[in-house]
Design brief:
mainly alpha; about 400 residues; elongated
């Protein structure tokens, strides 16, 4: 009897313990169901937004780090970029000579010799033109300055003679000051850096022209399968886009330089040849380059020849720019290289802030290459998924 009571009590205790465990488990389950998991917290709209924000911060940080590193290595980065641009521009010539059986070393030397001869001849012609017309230009500039000062004196808010003299004294004090001397030394340092970068660029260009295909095959060794095919597409598209852009821009710039130079010569503006060469180089800066070249040409005409000839020069510059924008660029550059003006403006601004004038020159071709790479990311005629045109876009913009 006593044993049966003890067994019954133990059974009741075990049942009570099991019931307590069940109650605790049920309460825990209810709490779990009421409280969302960590994954559920990041799955709602706010969590997705927070995830994208963190990803954006990481990407922007990496971009700033990359830009800072490239800026710190400007002495190396700029020559490499310029050498890559020139090598892409000369790639069809090198490919044609290799196809004719010309050794790579000989083909490279021929291309470099032609480039040196062309730039040397242009430089010699500029020096000759400046030397021949320097005396006449000085006299005309002096006369033009006197005319400008006489015109200023007739203005209602014209400065007094004492103010003009004070300004001249200020300029002379600055020229003879230590600040001007330190600036001159900084200029000498800049020239030294330029020469060093130029030599480095020529050496890198030599190897890009001579061993370009082998260098590219070495760079894509880590890729396999579809990734290797994508690397080939990206490389070919980058070189073709960059080369086409540079060759097209150079052709347009040459037409601008010849047209404006001939117009300046007909009008009788001094230094027509150097101004034409300046137009050629400034035309590589989209949107603003040709305008700046026209302003400089008009100012020279105003100082040397007078207001009428300056207006004629302005008309010539506008006419040449219209010919370039409406005919030459669509034909020579093609639709595939055409970027929206807003994209060009943003790229120019960023490039100018990061690299000055050289950054402005390089920003647009780099942007064109980036867009070209996006267009072949998933296939030869298949852009990246996010950049593909949607079917409804055609209907929306009709």
């Amino acid at each position: 009897m006593w044993l049966s009571k003890g067994a019954s009590r133990r059974r009741h205790e075990r049942a009570a313990v099991q019931q307590a465990v069940k109650d605790v488990a049920n309460e825990a389950q209810e709490v779990t169901e009421k409280k969302p998991s960590v994954g559920a917290l990041w799955a709602d709209s706010f969590g997705v937004f927070a995830t994208r924000a963190v990803q954006t911060i990481v990407i922007v940080t990496l971009l700033f780090g990359l830009i800072f590193g490239l800026h710190a290595l400007t002495m190396v980065v700029i020559p490499v970029l310029l050498a890559l641009i020139f090598a892409s521009a000369f790639a069809p010539v090198m490919r044609w000579m290799r196809g004719k059986g010309v050794p790579s070393l000989l083909a490279t030397l021929i291309v470099l010799a032609v480039v040196v001869c062309v730039f040397g001849m242009v430089g010699w012609l500029m020096v000759w033109a400046v030397k021949e017309e320097s005396d006449q230009l000085v006299d005309q500039a002096t006369e033009g300055w006197e005319q400008v000062m006489a015109w200023v004196q007739d203005l209602p808010f014209a400065p007094t003679d004492q103010q003009i003299k004070d300004f001249q004294d200020t300029v002379m004090d600055f020229v003879t000051s230590a600040s001007f001397g330190s600036g001159a030394l900084a200029g000498v340092g800049a020239v030294t850096s330029f020469i060093t970068s130029l030599v480095l660029m020529v050496v890198i260009l030599f190897f890009f022209l001579k061993d370009g295909p082998q260098i590219w095959l070495f760079l894509i060794r880590p890729f396999r399968g579809s990734q290797r095919e994508r690397a080939h597409r990206v490389g070919d598209k980058a070189v073709s886009t960059l080369g086409s852009y540079v060759r097209g821009t150079a052709t347009v710039a040459a037409v601008d330089a010849v047209g404006i130079g001939i117009g300046l010569a007909i009008v009788g503006v001094p230094l027509a040849l150097p101004l034409g060469v300046l137009v050629f180089f400034l035309s590589f800066i989209p949107l603003v380059g040709a305008t700046l070249a026209g302003i400089l040409a008009a100012l020279v005409a105003l100082v040397s020849n007078g207001l009428v000839d300056a207006l004629i020069v302005v008309a010539i510059v506008i006419g040449v720019n219209q010919l370039e924008g409406n005919f030459l660029q669509p034909v020579l550059m093609g639709r595939t290289l055409k970027l929206h003006p807003l994209v060009i403006l943003v790229a120019l601004t960023i490039g100018t802030l990061l690299g000055g004038v050289l950054g402005a020159v390089l920003s647009v071709p780099i942007t064109a290459v980036a867009w070209g790479v996006i267009q072949v990311w998933d296939g030869s005629d298949k852009p990246a998924n996010w950049a593909r045109k949607q079917p409804e876009e055609e209907q929306e913009f009709k």
